[in-house]
Amino acid sequence: MKRSRPFIKDVSPAYFGAWLDRLFEGHEMAARKIGRSAYSVTGYVATEKAAKVQRTESALEQDFLTLLEYDWRVLRYATQPFKIQWKDETGRLRRFTPDVAVAYNDMAVRSDPALRTTIFEVKARAQLKARWAEEKPRLKAAFAWAKDYGCRFKVMTEREIRTPYLENVRFLLRYQKMYGDQDLYDARIPHICELLVRLGPTTPQALLGTVRGDAVHRGEYIPYLWHLVTQQIVGIDLAKPLNMKAPIWPTAQARAIAGDRV
């Protein structure tokens, strides 16, 4: 490996995939200790998509991890994963630690063959602008490194992260998993799918209005409906505000679950 190109110390491009697996499994140490800065709001995120609690260095990075938590395509991720080493114009060795490494599951890759492990740098636009002279060569080196190591490198700012989609994801994450009476779950999930298939495009409010019983009983169906949204069984546009009057529709999965009931 030519040292004139950006690299990870002791990790060749050929070995990078296996090394990254070890990182995601918690066998490699984080590359950077997070210090204080004007942009830092340190925090910790517990997740099933990482072997260890992940530390973040800004509120924006925490918001980005929220998106990763909801994204069904994301298999694993790690914050401050490694140091990329590169030489500046003077030949001096520099180091750059990207913010997040993300691996995607097999189903996601099959549906999008261009999808591959992605390394993200999360920065506020004001921070990028204020430090552009310093950031530009680092980011250029990171893009070159990603090409050599078979990854994608992307920069995420508040423009891409803090959207109505993020607000919807924050709301829906509480419904991503359902706990409690399994018999109720097994009864209500197909019932909702049946009602939705019968109605076609509708709204949560209209769908719940077709559930027999009083308002309290109908209200008990709301968590199950949002759960079906998180599983992509109930279709909805998450780029728009989420409420009881938002358009919803049955997906192919909903039709399959409803089956002969319709």
UniProtKB/TrEMBL annotation:
Originating organism: Pseudomonas fluvialis
Domain TnsA endonuclease N-terminal intervals: 73-158
Coiled-coil stretches: none
Taxonomy of the source species: Bacteria, Pseudomonadati, Pseudomonadota, Gammaproteobacteria, Pseudomonadales
Pfam families: Tn7_Tnp_TnsA_C (PF08721), Tn7_TnsA-like_N (PF08722)
Protein name (database record): Heteromeric transposase endonuclease subunit TnsA
TnsA endonuclease C-terminal domain segment(s): 160-238
